[in-house]
Amino acid sequence: MVEPELSNLSHETRTFAPPPELAANANLTAQAYADAKEDRIGFWGKQAERISWAEPFTEVLDWSDAPHSKWFVGGKLNAAYNCVDRHVEAGLGDRVAYHFEAENGESEDITYADLLGRVCQAANALIELGVKTGDRVAIYMPMIPETVVAMLACARLGAPHTVIFAGYSSQAIQDRVQDCGVEVVITADGANRKGKPSALKPTVDKAMENCPAVRKVLVVCRTGQEVAWNDERDLWWHDLVSKQPTTHKCEFFDAEHPLYVMYSSGTTGKPKGVLHTTGGYMVGVSYTHWAVFDLKADKDVYWTAADIGWVTGHSYIVYGPLANATTSVMYEGTPDTPHQGRWWEIIQKYKVTILYCAPTAIRMFMKWGEQIPAKFDLSSLRLIGSVGEPINPEAYMWYRKNIGNDRCPVVDTWWQTENGMILISPLPGVTAGKPGSAMTPLPGVVAAVYDEAGKPVDKGGAGYLVVTEPWPAMLRSLWGDDDRYKNTYWSRFPGVYFSGDGAKLDEDGDFWLLGRVDDVMNVSGHRLSTTEIESALVSHPAVAEAAVVGAADALTGQSIEAFVILRESAHGGGEDVVKQLRDHVADQIGAIAKPRSIMVVPDLPKTRSGKIMRRLLKDIAEKREPGDSTTLADSSVMDLIQANLAGAK
Ligand code: WT7
Questions:
Q1: Is the confidence at residue 4, as pLDDT, over 80?
Q2: CA-based, 20 to 30 A from 530: which of 142, 250, 268, 323?
Q3: Ligand 1 pocket mutation, candidates 261, 527, 529, 592, criterion most atoms within 8 A of CB
Q4: For residue 633, what pLDDT is reported?
Q5: pLDDT band at 1 (very low <50, low <70, confident <90, very high)
Q6: How many angstroms separate the CA atoms of 314 and 295, rounded?
Q7: For position 174, what pLDDT does the model report?
């Protein structure tokens, strides 16, 4: 499989018009672009009608304190009420909210009425643990219904949650729990993964050694494996939650009340606590979920095949779909357990109509072969989506043909943790999609491509992707670090949001995403920081210096390649040191951050000002002749590295 150069993608000329039937019945028509253009604020005010407000807002947007936005000023609402209670009150209690499918094939249908009872129980349990409005709760959980219940219970109480992806290490939990000032953690004994139980609680236990502020750890029994127990601190979910009343009268909070914090990697070693608030976020996710997926809540069976531990799961497994009273699939396992057709079997079983997943998964399915999905009945599908990284035309075409049966529109959706909601995407009933392009900003969203000097480029030009007007689900700040918020997103081009992505506009004015322009990597749709991995490597006693680059990879988008200079004392460690270092990174951050290769080098290429020239290392990692090295302080370094690598083979 040959990965085309990203910059060549926009030579693609194929287009796929919306299926006529879908276009005729689409939730949004081309008129929406015109309406939003004419009165953008009024357009968002209208979208806010999708949400139930306990008190109406008096102003749609207050941008007077930019870059801090306030949306739906004065409005009061409860996110959990909007996701669950109001649907039950409207007579939809019997509708399935989730078809939960466990890895081992066990399954459970959870209706909106069931969900309401469970969320109320969990909220009552958190109250018993002393959780109050404004307190932060960390959630480190497998992909199980209790995870959604825990999030909604927090939202119901106005206690912002911070969900930590269950692949992260103790160190990562500790950093997030401390940064966010968490006092209560919700976790499970373990998760089912690849046919085996894998432990979660020991990872939390280890983190807790350095988190004295955490008073209580609430533990769901998922796998039944042996766990260590701290009687003072630990409580079983089934002991505490199950005995609670299934009703709870919720309070309503200000539109700008914090809903959650999601940590994401930036260009420095320290993850950023991206803060989302309630009103704008709920409007943004419900609108985009309805518009981009053309959701028909009474007919569709919707599946986001992602983990709730990432923003995709927050917005399009939990808040967006539930706000829209959707029936969703929630799947606990990996795509190849117990067989490589597992996803297609699930689509067949539940007659899934809309699938949303990442290009890295699609490329993996391509590698496994089209004969696998061909064995299943995928005729229920009517729309398929992609998110997390640029989708190369080859993967797009494979997805369209083998999963979408050349019938379903593909929506390639661009957005980020910070955005909270999809910003750039085709509208399935309007846009003729092009393989590899996210097409245009959604109605209500205004984005542009800027050149180095901050001038919008013309059609055919390339540069930096910026969002030029605020949008409702935008992050409000970084938890505890507002200066970093302003510097990271609003200083590169004053007054507009800098995404950190490169993009190109084609001759039609459609957007083509070109990947990150900063030190952020995208590995299998997971965002990782080169600096964060470098810090992890350097924290090992054997390492004197480290440089990390993301190299193009046909399957995972990018792969992590590390170059290290060892300390004198560690020389001669060979293979052993490399293994130790990979494990050390897993320990510091999580297994997803393990470098694919670690090359021991005598020196690193640096400019006269001491900046590592990662571009040259990237050339080596991607097995190219290194480019121009004339600005190096010591130009012999590259020869030395290459001689060294040749010698090591
Ligand atoms: C970065 C954000 C938002 C969901 C998952 C990732 C890349 C995301 C696309 C797309 C090209 C994409 C960007 C972005 N990205 N979607 N459709 N086409 N690139 O969230 O971890 O915050 O990562 O993912 O580089 O900056 P995230």
A1: no
A2: 142
A3: 527
A4: 77
A5: very low
A6: 18
A7: 96
> Which residue among 415, 425, 516, 558 is best mutated to probe the pocket of ligand 1, counting the most ligand atoms within 8 A of its Cβ?
415
User: How many residues comprise the chain?
Assistant: 649
Distance 482 CA to ligand 1 centre (A): 23
CA distances from 628 to 76, 545, 599, 616 (A): 58, 23, 21, 8
Please, are residues 287 and 427 in contact by the beta-carbon 8 Å criterion? no
Alpha carbon of 425 to ligand 1 centroid (Å): 12
Give 247-305 as a DSSP string: --PPP-EETTSEEEEEEE--SSSSPEEEEEESHHHHHHHHHHHHHHTT--TTT-EEEE-
Atom of ligand 1 lying closest to residue 500 CA = 26
> What integer is the mean pLDDT of 600-624?
86
The mean pLDDT value of the chain amounts to 94
Ligand 1 atom nearest to 413, measured from its CA: 17
Q: Quick check: 30 pLDDT over 80? A: yes
Q: What is the pTM of this model?
A: 0.91
Ligand 1 neighbours, Cβ below 6 Å, are: 264, 311-312, 387-390, 412-417, 438, 499-501, 513, 515-516, 522, 527
ipTM: 0.99
Q: What is the pLDDT of residue 545?
A: 87
Query: Does residue 574 surpass a pLDDT of 70?
Result: no
Are the C-beta atoms of 528 and 520 separated by less than 8 Å? yes
Burial of 642 (0-12, 13-18, 19+ CB in 10 A): middle
Q: Are 335 and 343 in contact (CB under 8 A)?
A: yes
